[in-house]
Amino acid sequence: MQPMPHQVMGYDRAITMFSPDGRLLQVEYAKKTVRLGNTAIGITCKDGVLLVTDKRIVDKLVVADAIEKIFLIDDHIIATAAGILSDARVLVEKAQNKAQENRVTFDSPIDTLTVVKDMCSLKQLCTQSGGLRPFGVSLLVAGIDEDGTKLFLTDPTGLYYQYRAAVIGEGEADIQETLHKEYKESMSVKDALALAAKAIKNFLGENFEPQRIDAAYIDAQTKTMKKISQEEINAAVK
Amino acid sequence: MQPMPHQVMGYDRAITMFSPDGRLLQVEYAKKTVRLGNTAIGITCKDGVLLVTDKRIVDKLVVADAIEKIFLIDDHIIATAAGILSDARVLVEKAQNKAQENRVTFDSPIDTLTVVKDMCSLKQLCTQSGGLRPFGVSLLVAGIDEDGTKLFLTDPTGLYYQYRAAVIGEGEADIQETLHKEYKESMSVKDALALAAKAIKNFLGENFEPQRIDAAYIDAQTKTMKKISQEEINAAVK
Amino acid sequence: MQPMPHQVMGYDRAITMFSPDGRLLQVEYAKKTVRLGNTAIGITCKDGVLLVTDKRIVDKLVVADAIEKIFLIDDHIIATAAGILSDARVLVEKAQNKAQENRVTFDSPIDTLTVVKDMCSLKQLCTQSGGLRPFGVSLLVAGIDEDGTKLFLTDPTGLYYQYRAAVIGEGEADIQETLHKEYKESMSVKDALALAAKAIKNFLGENFEPQRIDAAYIDAQTKTMKKISQEEINAAVK
Amino acid sequence: MQPMPHQVMGYDRAITMFSPDGRLLQVEYAKKTVRLGNTAIGITCKDGVLLVTDKRIVDKLVVADAIEKIFLIDDHIIATAAGILSDARVLVEKAQNKAQENRVTFDSPIDTLTVVKDMCSLKQLCTQSGGLRPFGVSLLVAGIDEDGTKLFLTDPTGLYYQYRAAVIGEGEADIQETLHKEYKESMSVKDALALAAKAIKNFLGENFEPQRIDAAYIDAQTKTMKKISQEEINAAVK
Amino acid sequence: MQPMPHQVMGYDRAITMFSPDGRLLQVEYAKKTVRLGNTAIGITCKDGVLLVTDKRIVDKLVVADAIEKIFLIDDHIIATAAGILSDARVLVEKAQNKAQENRVTFDSPIDTLTVVKDMCSLKQLCTQSGGLRPFGVSLLVAGIDEDGTKLFLTDPTGLYYQYRAAVIGEGEADIQETLHKEYKESMSVKDALALAAKAIKNFLGENFEPQRIDAAYIDAQTKTMKKISQEEINAAVK
Amino acid sequence: MQPMPHQVMGYDRAITMFSPDGRLLQVEYAKKTVRLGNTAIGITCKDGVLLVTDKRIVDKLVVADAIEKIFLIDDHIIATAAGILSDARVLVEKAQNKAQENRVTFDSPIDTLTVVKDMCSLKQLCTQSGGLRPFGVSLLVAGIDEDGTKLFLTDPTGLYYQYRAAVIGEGEADIQETLHKEYKESMSVKDALALAAKAIKNFLGENFEPQRIDAAYIDAQTKTMKKISQEEINAAVK
Amino acid sequence: MQPMPHQVMGYDRAITMFSPDGRLLQVEYAKKTVRLGNTAIGITCKDGVLLVTDKRIVDKLVVADAIEKIFLIDDHIIATAAGILSDARVLVEKAQNKAQENRVTFDSPIDTLTVVKDMCSLKQLCTQSGGLRPFGVSLLVAGIDEDGTKLFLTDPTGLYYQYRAAVIGEGEADIQETLHKEYKESMSVKDALALAAKAIKNFLGENFEPQRIDAAYIDAQTKTMKKISQEEINAAVK
Known about the structure:
By secondary structure, chain A is of the alpha+beta class. Chain A has helices spanning 3-8, 25-35, 85-106, 112-125, 172-182, 189-204, 230-237, and strands spanning 40-45, 48-54, 70-74, 77-83, 137-145, 148-154, 160-162, 165-168, 213-219, 225-227. Chain A has 7 helices and 10 strands.
């Protein structure tokens, strides 16, 4: 494996170029951005679907409550991201508009998968058309539809998969292992919060502070978002 | 054969460039991507046309049932892909829209060949117009029309051929040999499933797990898609 | 003659660039593609105009009958190609549409020359406008109009000539020699088929198989296409 | 850490290019521009929200009163910038138009966050689309809405955060430290002015002159902008 | 004179670039193409205006009569070309359309000069706008208008001059000398044909064959084109 | 300070590129153009606002009166420029149109600041959008509005400042020093003319000739432009 | 002064690029083209305004009368050019259209200055927008308006000046000196013709022939163009 030559040859200078071994290097670099982003975890539970994310910011001058790391797409759909957050916001705003249009046009809530597919079409386009760069962000999209609880992961390629539990960003490899070991479908949102918080705490080590954690879930009963308070997080961390 | 010089000269940096020996190197690299993609097999049978594909994912956290590796284009047409799957989805979505339009406009199901030609026109365009890269994906498109059972293979060039049995992606050479030896027009879908599953199993060796296999077919009687259950796959593998 | 320096200087990197000796190198490379393509022969006869082409594929898994190597443009016009076949199909589809429009607008069959000129305008454009590459394909277009039998050859430059008998693709030089020696205006389609089949057989040598040959003609009486059956081909080869 | 090689490789020559470690170097250079810009401080207070900025110009030939360093976006929203000031003006003019449209369309004042999100969408676009460069400017946007006092910081990436007290431009690191130590939510605008003026004075050292300071705030009672006079600034500096 | 350095410096890589000595090298290369093209001669006579051209093709398989080397633009205007013939056809087709529009709009034949100016505007554009290459072709345009006999030469720059007798393409220098010596305004079309045929014969030497010559003229009386038959050409050559 | 490396690295080849230290080098080069341009001085006075410029041309064959170096934008607004004068004219023509539109739409004279902001928006755009170069010109815009006398300086970045007295172009540094020493707000236009003329004379030294000076002002009473005659200039110079 | 390095650095490869010393090198090269063009002289006289130009062509096969070197823009305006003549024609045709529109719209002849400004706006655009090259041509535009006789010179930058007598093209420096010495405002067109003819004769030396001279003027009385005959030119030369 000699990655250097392909870079010297310039195969990684445009998204409209394949390398001789059939790779899209600019898209791979965009994935690198995601792996350097803040940790975000999604877990489907018996009583809802939970998103937990590391806000990374512990600056008393910043209004912590106002940090938008978990985005509301529609009453029943939330999302969080790892990578370039301004890229994420563009995708989220499009999703919000799409969801609103759906309500207006069909008088019914949009399907989570429809939101995800739409997002991925735009992401794919940015891996094929010159003059644009790929989106440097992965998202976890969590929703509760008529037919059940959903959690999707979309990457910079425009690929998506449905997960029971997923992690993106910094520490992905370690935390995935934890999820594999400890995730159970019978978990409650409360259990899942404890699991996710612990996983982030273990990964961050001494840099960890409960204030860094942001969490919210779609409640299976009401099919609406519930923010998890700092107190609940503090409790979960212990 | 000295491939190096043409790369040093930069003939492989744009799809709008022929090499001095008349090749489109970027398109050839896109074909390389396909050969690295997941294995997919298509087989025409006396009682239908079958697609079998390697999902590659064996992660209990992923919702296996939700992995879209076999796409429904219209009631009577399905497709599967090898290569960049987000590229495949763009092509499939266009095909789905085209099929739906056909039903609305002509009040009749679209012809499988029409779907394939349309897909290939877009693929060809992306091998000729600057500012876009070729689609890095081959597809198997299977359908049953008024005039019989069809199986087409489309490559990144925008070429297509009609096959009795075909394979794309990883292990293509090996599995093609198997198909040559063992394919018979008189096969039933059940026989074909056993053949395809065995071929993938042999190629993957110890990495093989029955859960990796996804399969579906268009039934000759009803002219609609039937998903093949994990139990049927497990049975076929033995 | 030192072709190397012009390549080193980069005169062959874009179709919008002349070399110092006034050549369009990208267009010349496109012609190279044609010379590597499958052999195709056209012959005007007293009772029709014949196209014979090498399908190149001898794979029992491919549905040989479905290989489109001779395209129907209108009832009275057919075409075949050498080079990039997906490029050919784009040109053929445009020609089919043009022919259909002509029938609708003028209520009469289109002239073969009109089809050819239209095709060549697009080919020329792709040798002059940046952002596109030249079409890497030559076509033989055969038709029978009010005023007689026609056979045209169009090359990647957008040039066309009317021929009595012509050959494109692999083996062009050898087969042209054979045509010069043996072609007679008084030939019947049957004679011409024997001539063309023999020429291809001689060129391919031991790689030859009768199944590789595809042939069709426009019948002078009915002014419609007749496919030539495998049996007739087999007979002609002997 | 070896930044040189990536520059030699050209990963910093376009915003449509990721470096192999997933960074957008052109955007990072734009942030460098901001760090070289004039100092600007924003502080939320119990009785309003204050912006203080260094005009940098102490030329008696320049009409000091006319230097627009604090921009009025709507009656209740002001902004100031660090970096390329002509870039800032483009963003401010768009915000002014947006605010005016909001009054016309909804007959109500625009929300500060809406102004900020709109500004950031354009900033993000300029980090993704070729043919444009990123905006080389950060802004502090201060407003008082129905639901309280707001202070936002937007950077060249299109990211924004809500702050209690923030600083951009030259001396950012030093002044941030001062803010951390001395900021209190119970501060009055008068206290905050003294704090900000002192911070700038300490940073500039002997280059400091009271005339360099420009300051204005949105008054919590009237929800309108009040300019702070040179006399008040002179008093605050002592 | 050291032409090499400017090529090494890349001043000849785009038509949007002047060399330091104020030349447009790409346009000069296009002129080179013309000088390598087939010979074409135009001569104004007392009884008409004649075009004579070298078809270059002496292949019995080509339908010689169908070789379009002298193009009919309108009843009273013909043209011939040297250089890239597919480029010529684009210009001729535009001229044909322009002439037809003129008849429809003004109910009168178009002026030869108007045709030439129109052609030259397009040629000039292709020497100034990036994304296109210059037309690699010179044309002789011959017509008889209300106010007399006209012969124009247009070059790749978009320049035109009115001539009494002119030559373009291969052998230009030699044949121009012959024209200077032997051309007389009192010549008949028959005399001029003999002169032109002899000039081409002398230049081609042993490669000459009467069948290579194509000739036509606009008759001064009828103001319409007359094709010159092979017999007349054979006679003229002797 | 090592400016060379950034040039070698190519950071100064496009306006869409920041250098690693956050500079826009192409814009800095455009400012260089301005510093090489003809000297132009603006001075606000108690009885009007004056523009004085060096015509540079002392050729009796040139019609000196017709040299447009001071442009009338509207009755009450004039401008002069240093740098690329054809660039200046584009900006002035747009300003003239804008002013005229304002009169038609609002039935009132345009505000000087509005003219300046509009001009600067276009200038800014040309520092951000690829495919254009920055305007290589600074302008002094002088006007008398309802609310008083105005003098603005706009640079190639699209920045503007309001001045009491300002100088652009050749000798800027020297003349600015003179203005600092000798400018008084109580000056009359006559005093200011003497000051400006002397400053230019001192800078040009022996190259100075009174005929090089062009001067005009907006009169505070009539709010219209008055040209200053050569006689008045000659008198002022002494 | 070391011009070489800037060329090596590539600052002269695009019009959208300033060199570090603030020059637009591509525009300077375009001016070089003009200095290599044919000589053209314009002289304002008491009884009209004269243009004299060197046709350069002394080929009896060319129809000398038809060489358009002095263009009629409107009844009262003529122009001549030095540099790329096909560029000149584009500008002249636009001016002709503009003049005609003026007559139709305002029912009055267009002002010479309006023609010149319009021409220069287009020229300026071609020095600022990528994808186009600058016009490689200077023009002398001569007209007689309501308010007197006008002679303008426009260069490739889009700059213009009004002259009493001006020269462009080859020999510019020498002939300008002659004009400086011998031009008088009291000259008649006849005197001016003798002066211009002599100047060209002296410059060309033994290459001079009276037939190379083309001349025309706008007559002050009739305000229309008068061509000067070869006889008058011959007389003037003696």
